[in-house]
Amino acid sequence: MSNxxxxxxGVTSTTQFGVIGKIYEELFTDSxxxxxxxxxxxxxxxxxxxxxxxVGAIGSAVAGTDTMWLQGQCVAIATGGVRRRILYGVSxxxxxxxxxxxxxxxxxxxxxxxxxxxxEGDYLQSTxxxxxxxxxxxxxxxxxxxxxxxxxxxxxxxxTAYITLL
Length: 166
Fold this sequence. Notes:
Blueprint lengths: L23 E6 L5 E11 L8 E3 L8 H7 L1 E4 L10 E5 L8 E14 L9 E4 L6 E3 L13 E5 L4 E7 L2
Parallel strand pairs: 2-4
Antiparallel strand pairs: 1-2, 2-6, 3-4, 3-5, 5-6, 6-10, 7-8, 7-9, 9-10
């Protein structure tokens, strides 16, 4: 049994082309030519999703996790400080409503949408801007549950980040 993505991770389709809930490995070559492994999940967009958007449970609430975990249905997250268990990954491509696509649940994403400027080393969390992340500014108890990854190359509207949602 293989867990390696055999098709392009840029593929989207109205037909389910993988197993919901399975973690797939992808050999990824970044824009600098470095090859690394990242882990992907197949998801079904309940509403249209853009490339680089953080996706997760419908309504960004625990009540939506059943359709996320059992059917792979996700939306662009539009709530700040969502806990990791409600998040699925970062979409690699634009996915139309009702179609399937890939999201990164662990590994490097080069064009993650940001709600504001983030800097190298910032821990990232969801924001009220649909699909975007921002630096986490709280060190309160439990705030580590909101960290979706960290910024490795900063930017004002997107960044390169290491995502860790497993």
